[in-house]
Write a structure and sequence with these properties.
single chain, two-stranded antiparallel ribbon, 14 helices, 2 strands, 77% helix, disordered N terminus
Length: 435
């Protein structure tokens, strides 16, 4: 969840208007002073949401670096083991929209607390799963529980933090997502090397417990939340409107396809690196996820790329970078594989940043739902990429996984080219009207 595991960053809350899925009554202006740096509660709130982000994304991807060990332990294929990741991300994708709507009725703080509590409790059971089926089922429950956190956190920040401090507050939460996703994978790799994969999952569970406890005691009570009555018809209408917008649908597809590449590569890379000719130990394989830091840089640079090249130009550059990385990773030299991962990661995060930011700019109403739909597509892409990439690896090795990634990249190119043609046709149609 961003980073690849930064899914939270795709949820953009319009603080000036209530969600169209509920009926709300706006709080009186200035009824409660909002948080900002230097005021009581801001630092506690920042640390609380940072801890929540670490816990959520450490749990969400906790099995990804451990898949080779899980395969051996349960005597299952890479494709079967990959469901321990895909079930969690798939369940999150399916539940993020309804849970974000429930937070409108029951409160952001309550939804975040419930999500973390359930996910952490399940996380303490995960290391004791007696079979691959039980492990997949527990991971699906965990992913569904975690779906209540990202959208609720963004909405909480929009309501409780002064606008001028909002970007910094959201940035810290997203940083927690990234650090949680990366550190969880690294932690599991080294613990598994010493004590086995079950101990590694227990270590992530304990990390999440500590973060959840910190969140519970630090998060300030919501003072500007006004509960609304759930309106399923309004929600369905808003969703249908967004799905009827061709540009939004193209952006959802681009996000899903980029994440298909990323999910496939990072689900399978462990299998390749523990095997010949590399034969790396589990701890080193887990440390490969430090490459995620490249994504932080490329995400931050996405705005400048769009300013210079335009949205489609930035997407073409992201696609080219990802393609170069996929091709480089085919070599049997470790340096080439690592450079390939760097390029894949940079290209993915840049493309994801462009697509996700375009969603909030394209949607004129119901921006929270538009972004939640993007997040759903994004995590469905992760789920599909992880499973299909592992199946391809089992059938034809790393080259087959790369082929799947190149096919997804071709999909992004086709959609972007089609969007370019549509934009040109629209401009030509407007020329006579301006004369």
């Amino acid at each position: 969840m961003p980073p690849a595991d930064t899914g939270a960053s795709t949820v953009v809350v319009d603080a000036s208007a209530p969600s169209s899925s509920v009926t709300t009554t706006a709080a009186p202006a200035g009824a409660h002073e909002r948080l900002e740096p230097g005021r009581p509660g801001y630092r506690k709130m920042s640390f609380a949401l940072f801890a929540a982000g670490v816990a959520a994304f450490a749990l969400l991807y906790s099995t990804q670096a451990l898949l080779p060990a899980i395969s051996v332990s349960y005597d299952v294929s890479a494709g079967q083991a990959s469901w321990t990741v895909s079930a969690a991300t798939g369940a999150l994708a399916l539940c993020v929209l309804p849970l974000s709507a429930l937070s409108e009725r029951f409160g952001r703080r309550q939804m975040m607390t419930a999500s973390l509590t359930v996910a952490v409790l399940v996380g303490m059971l995960v290391p004791f799963a007696p079979s691959i089926g039980w492990l997949i089922a527990l991971r699906a429950i965990q992913g569904a529980a975690l779906a209540g956190l990202p959208a609720s956190a963004m909405a909480y920040l929009a309501e409780e933090v002064r606008p001028k401090a909002l970007i910094a507050a959201i940035g810290l939460f997203v940083a927690g997502n990234s650090i949680g996703g990366m550190s969880g994978r690294i932690l599991t790799g080294w613990v598994a090397q010493a004590w086995g994969w079950r101990a590694a999952l227990a270590a992530v569970g304990l990390l999440a417990v500590a973060c959840a406890v910190a969140f519970h005691f630090l998060i300030p009570k919501a003072r500007n939340f006004t509960p609304g009555s759930l309106n399923p018809k309004a929600l369905a209408k808003t969703v249908a409107t967004h799905l009827g917008n061709p540009l939004l649908v193209r952006l959802y597809a681009i996000g899903a396809l980029f994440m298909t590449v990323f999910g496939a590569v990072y689900t399978v890379i462990g299998y390749r690196l523990v095997d010949e000719p590399f034969s790396l130990p589990q701890g080193i394989v887990g440390s490969i996820f430090l490459v995620y830091l490249v994504g932080t840089v490329s995400s931050a640079a996405a705005g400048q790329l769009v300013a210079r090249l335009g949205r489609r130009g930035a997407l073409y550059l992201a696609v080219s970078t990802t393609t170069a990385g996929l091709l480089l990773s085919l070599a049997d030299q470790l340096a080439s594989v690592l450079l390939g991962l760097v390029l894949i990661t940079a290209g993915f995060f840049a493309g994801h940043a462009v697509a996700s930011s375009s969603v909030s700019r394209t949607a004129t109403t119901g921006r929270a739902q538009a972004s939640a739909l993007y997040q759903s597509a994004y995590y469905l892409g992760s789920s599909a990429g992880g499973t299909l990439g592992a199946v391809a690896f089992h059938a034809g090795g790393w080259a087959a996984t790369v082929s799947l990634g190149l096919l997804a990249v071709l999909g992004v190119v086709s959609i972007t080219l089609y969007g370019t043609r549509v934009a040109r046709a629209e401009r030509r149609a407007l020329i006579p009207a301006t004369r």
